[in-house]
Amino acid sequence: MIRPDYLLTGASEIATLARGPVPRVGPAAAELGIVRRGAIALQGGRIVALGSEGAVVARIRRPPTDRVFDLDGSVVVPAFVDAHTHALFAGSREGELPSKILGATYLDIARAGGGIFRTVRSTRRANADRLIRETSDRLLRAARGGSRTVEVKTGYALTHSGELRLLRLLPAIAHRTGLHIVPTYLGAHAVPPEAKGRRRDYVNEIVRRSIPGVADQ
């Protein structure tokens, strides 16, 4: 008999995604493997039993009352995978919103010193503690919305050492948030101002130095 740490009961529906193709595409995306009036038993942070409430209760030794939670008719679904984010940076560009509302283009804002290079300047100046704190706060907001796996790009340092520094911060951010973070190196996000007119040199540095450096890290 299973001895779970926790028991979740009273779910009106549980989307298990069982008995279907992976990944689900086309019509198969509607096949959610629904269990109605379900329960979930957890042990060591893993699901050890899932099914109709009667079937699950019959397979387990019920944990203490303070470890049994009534979901009160909630629907349970797998956590979201956020496959594209630019969460790792310092500062904010929300002050540019009024200009955008009034019709300014991305290039207009960039020429005025805003846009991506405003974020690059802030990120380069920020110490590790600030970057970890601000990025963690953003990702925790995503977690409250249901995301548990998040892809996170670099791309706001735009130097060899700066981009590698951003990658090295991600394990600390994952530890702080409890999220599964999938890192992406984005050194070619833009050509930095100091490389203006030397695009080829910048790309060559990425190819010959930075990408091997990422592979070694």
From TrEMBL:
Keywords: Histidine metabolism, Hydrolase, Iron, Metal-binding, Zinc. GO terms for molecular function: imidazolonepropionase activity; metal ion binding. GO terms for biological process: L-histidine catabolic process to glutamate and formamide. Pathway: Amino-acid degradation. GO terms for cellular component: cytoplasm. InterPro entries: HutI (IPR005920), Metal-dep_hydrolase_composite (IPR011059), Metal_Hydrolase (IPR032466). It is an enzyme of class 3 (hydrolase). Its EC number is 3.5.2.7. The keyword Transit peptide does not apply. PANTHER family: IMIDAZOLONEPROPIONASE, IMIDAZOLONEPROPIONASE-RELATED. This is imidazolonepropionase. It comes from mine drainage metagenome.
